[in-house]
Structure formats: C-alpha cells, structure tokens
Amino acid sequence: MHRLAAALVVIGVALALAGCSGGESKPAAASAPAAASCPAAWKAGWQRLANRIHAPVYCPTWMPSPLDGKIGGQWDNGVSVDPDRSYLVSFLWHEPPSQDVHVNFRGYPGHAAVPRCIDVQTVAGRTRRRSMPCFSDARAPRRVGKVLVTVYTVNRDADQWHVLYAWRHRGSLYAASEHVAKPLTYRRVVENLDRLVVGLVRIDPST
Fold first, then answer.
1. Stretch 151-156: mean pLDDT, rounded?
2. Is 180 helix (H, G, I), strand (E, B) or coil?
3. Per-residue pLDDT tens over the stretch 98-126
C-alpha cells in the first residue's frame, strides 16, 4: 500500500534531515508514564478506524512531545485506507527549515508479510522500477512490553528515514515508526518507540 517511489536509504546514528510539514511547537523529552487505556480524547477516532476496516487497530497512550494521538487533531498528518483495508495514520510536528517529530502507524488486516514498495532509479537517463520490501534491514526480534517486535532501519514510502517497529497479531501485520531527524537522535527515537509500543492499546471493531 502507499507505494510511492523512494530511494534506498540507510539510517545511522548520524542522520540527514527530512522534508515534512506541519505545526510549530517546541518538542521536549518524554516523561509522563503511559496510560492504561486509550485516552478518551483519542479513542473515538481510533474506534472509527477499527470499524471502517473491520479489524483491530492499536491506539497509542503516549506520544513523543509535542504530538498527541488524536486523529483529526492538531498534529494529524492524514489517514489513508487502501482497498485491501491496510491503513496509514500519520502525526507530524515540523519547524522550518528541517526539524521534525513524525510518527506513523500502519496495519495490514489479513496480511502478515512485509508489504512491497516500488523503488524507482534513473541510471544513464533510463528509469528502472523494482519491487522491494517496504521495510528492510531487520534486526533480531525482541520483546517490547507484551509485543514481540522486529526493528527495521531501512524503510520506504512514508517511512523513509524512520526507524520502524513491526509486529503480528492473529495473521495481521502492524507497524509504528518515527522519523530520525533534528531535534531527535537515533537513540532518542528508539527510546520513544520502546515507550510508545509498550503503551499501545488494541481496539477491536464494534460494528
């Protein structure tokens, strides 16, 4: 899903900047503990998404500052659902010229395999298109809270320049990712994703 052309990028400890757009508030380090349930102000949007795709979704209970997890809120960067019911929910803070806090959530109901993206390269004036995994450079699976995640550091499409955590639930693949860009370091993004995933709450469809 969302197979936009993107170049192969390797994320390291020292990372380049990115070009997203959004609101303008100064981010801060995470400090508050995750809640035990989906916050009331956020739950309605995630419940609507679960009902729309007829499959579970994962609501965050904590987000890296200044973001929140309210679909349709101040930091909402878009929700898209493909015909196969796979979805992308994005939240973004941006301060020109190049500071970002950008978090994506994905789900692939009924599909456990890593999705494919189209990689476009132009060599000697000729354009070549290749089908490649959207998530790659996998690290050894590890447990984050109750979830067994695989960490991917080379990603494409809307997750380019992101560290991405992927996990499976009842034959469906889910993912959360965060952009590594100023003012965040690679280490801080990994800490953020650990905390975010620990606090995820599954929301089942009600219709």
1. 97
2. coil
3. 789 999 999 999 999 999 998 887 877 88
User: Which residues, in sequence order, are CB contacts of 105 under 8 Å at separation 6+?
Assistant: 57, 58, 60, 87, 88, 89, 90, 174, 175, 176
Q: Which tokens sit at 163?
A: 């560290």
How far is residue 134's CA from residue 120's CA, in Å, rounded to a whole number? 13
Map 34-95 to HEC letters.
CCCCCCHHHHHHHHHHHHHHCCCEEECCCCCCCCCCCCCCCCEEEEEECCCCCEEEEEEEEE
What distance in Å separates the CA atoms of residue 196 and residue 35, rounded to the nearest whole number?
A: 11
Residue 32: band (very low, low, confident or very high) from pLDDT cuts 50, 70, 90: very low
Supply 176's token pair. Answer: 């959360």
178 within 8 A of 192, measured Cβ to Cβ: yes
